[in-house]
From TrEMBL:
It is found in: Membrane. Keywords: Glycoprotein, Glycosyltransferase, Membrane, Transferase, Transmembrane, Transmembrane helix. It comes from the Eukaryota. It comes from Nelumbo nucifera (Sacred lotus). Residues 50-73, 425-445 are annotated as: Disordered. Residues 50-61 have a biased composition (Low complexity). This is Beta-glucuronosyltransferase GlcAT14A. The chain crosses the membrane at residues 21-40. One of its GO terms (molecular function) is glucuronosyltransferase activity. It holds the Pfam family Branch. The keyword Ribonucleoprotein does not apply. Residues 62-73, 432-445 have a biased composition (Polar residues). It is a single-pass type II membrane protein. One of its GO terms (cellular component) is membrane.
């Protein structure tokens, strides 16, 4: 898998060694599985129903299935994560990966072109050195990287590139989530997968609004040229002196760059025969910060998908004072509020900030340098329960699932969902702005 995206990595030479390691691992896990089986059958002989299990390791544990019978919960979904970072972000990406890892998911790591190829190579080697990543083969590194200027439009092409690779790698994921190296989870993967398993798989969680406000003059009408699309060295975005009018053929929506998108919608954007995603792609190619508007505008202008949008990306962000242009850096002071918010992810954190250690300890139950434990980790070792793995369909949701459930129930409640869904109703503020736009345009003419 790795060699598919990173052709320079010599995977061939290590195969036999890997196979041996894997064999050792499987042997160890079988041994302790036998131990668990004998233990559980002696304490609880009544429940010995066996299950075929969809685990890629074909190992399933009776012990764990007693705790959480599969029949009561739907099959957990699978998430495809695309994680992007820049020069020097490898460590943050790895820490984030460890904190959101689950064998059911797919992970694609992207160090953008501001990082050199040796960092990408190093990242791939670090990934290769983790036994579970090697065994499941669900973590990959983009070998041919892109620029992703968040103030330009290259971020859209980079996100679509990531989504396209993930579509090809696995036919089984249900949602696509784009994260940056500065993001961190606020619930465990077991919490998230557990809650998502009760939701329709066509929901898209996307902050969106048609009240464009201050963004109109600063983001919608200016014309930019993003050098990330045509230069091979980092260079500044430049603004064209002319401005353009807002489109009439469709309505613009804007929101935030991070979203949770359904597989169906991602396929619509990348493989679909409807031309809307492509037309908008070209329209947004010279608009500032257009990733924050692209998916929103495609979703809300599509009859098929506008009914599937939920107006929240399940991410916690703290804003500066109005006009809310820049998200603040989250610190220990924000801990209570961000956990309380019931969000699944927080953004943005500084590298190795103490608040991340507190999240690891109190929320994720993760030891430094280890993978976040979940229902699939069945080793008895207190040191690292994830050295032996069982059925990946077994989840152990904790308090985070309750918080997330509450948040999602609020979002999906009768009033909230439809009122906030791609709403086109003009508020008084909007019509004011519309008038001001007209007068602006007159003065330009
Ligand atoms: C790549 O970047 C890293 C970090 O900036 C630096 O230490 C290293 O020397 C660079 N390697 C090459 C081959 O340029
Ligand atoms: C997304 O929307 C929610 C609810 O409107 C808001 O609280 C949050 O700050 C927004 N996030 C971003 C990144 O805009
Ligand atoms: C945290 O993980 C340890 C094993 O690493 C486990 O024994 C303990 O029960 C876990 N605590 C919670 C609250 O899940
Ligand atoms: C849900 O909203 C619809 C449309 O607004 C309304 O007709 C219906 O009575 C509401 N149902 C409940 C249970 O509030
Ligand atoms: C529109 O312009 C008027 C005066 O020209 C100003 O008072 C008002 O605040 C503006 N409204 C908005 C939403 O910018
Ligand atoms: C390409 C890319 O990284 N896009 C966005 C992914 O999501 C984060 C926020 O979580 C954005 O900041 C990135 O620009």
């Amino acid at each position: 898998m790795l060699s598919a995206t990173l052709p320079t990595t010599a995977t061939g030479t290590t195969t036999s060694k890997e196979a041996r390691n894997l064999y050792c691992l499987l042997a160890t896990s079988l041994l302790s599985l036998l131990f668990i089986l004998s233990f559980s059958s002696s304490t609880n002989p009544a429940s010995s129903s066996s299950s075929s299990g969809s685990s890629p390791f074909a190992l399933s544990s009776h012990h764990l299935q007693q705790q959480q019978p599969n029949s009561l919960t739907p099959t957990p979904p699978s998430i495809a994560y695309f994680i992007t970072g820049s020069n020097g972000d490898s460590e943050r990406i790895l820490r984030l990966l460890f904190a959101i890892y689950h064998p059911r998911n797919q992970y694609l790591l992207h160090l953008d072109l501001t990082a050199n190829q040796s960092q990408r190579h190093q990242l791939a080697l670090s990934v290769q050195s983790v036994p579970i990543f090697r065994a499941v083969q669900n973590v990959n590194v983009v070998g041919k990287a892109d620029f992703a200027y968040s103030r330009g439009s290259s971020a859209i092409s980079s996100t679509l590139h990531g989504a396209a690779i993930l579509l090809r790698f696995s036919s089984s994921w249900d949602w696509f989530i784009n994260l940056s190296a500065a993001d961190y989870p606020l619930v465990t993967q077991d919490d998230l997968l557990h809650i998502l398993s009760f939701l329709p798989k066509d929901l898209n969680f996307v902050n969106h609004t048609s009240r464009i406000g201050w963004r109109e003059s600063r983001r919608m009408k200016p014309i930019i040229v993003d050098p990330g699309l045509y230069l091979s060295a980092k260079s500044d975005i430049f603004y064209v002196t002319q401005k353009r009018e807002l489109p009439q053929a469709y309505r613009l929506f804007t929101g935030s760059a991070s979203a949770i998108l359904s597989r169906k919608f991602v396929e619509f954007c990348i493989l679909g025969s409807d031309n809307l995603p492509r037309v908008l792609l070209m329209f947004f190619s010279n608009m500032p910060s257009s990733l924050a508007s692209y998916f929103q505008t495609v979703l809300c202008n599509s009859q098929e998908f506008k009914k599937t949008t939920v107006n929240h990306n399940l991410q916690y962000v703290s804003w500066d004072k109005p006009p809310r242009q820049e998200p603040c850096i989250l610190t220990l002071n924000d801990f209570d509020e961000m956990i309380h918010s019931g969000a699944a992810f927080g953004s943005q954190f500084l590298q190795n900030d103490p608040v991340l250690d507190r999240i690891d300890e109190e929320i994720l139950n993760r030891t430094a340098g280890k993978i976040i434990p979940g229902g699939w980790c069945i080793s008895d070792s207190n040191n690292d329960p994830c050295t032996v793995w069982g059925d990946t369909a077994v989840l152990r949701p904790g308090p985070g699932a309750k918080r997330l459930e509450k948040r999602i129930v609020e979002l999906l409640s009768n009033g909230t969902l439809h009122v906030n869904q791609c709403s086109e109703t003009l508020t008084e503020e909007d019509s004011q702005t519309a008038q001001n736009v007209t007068s602006d345009q007159n003065s330009v003419d």
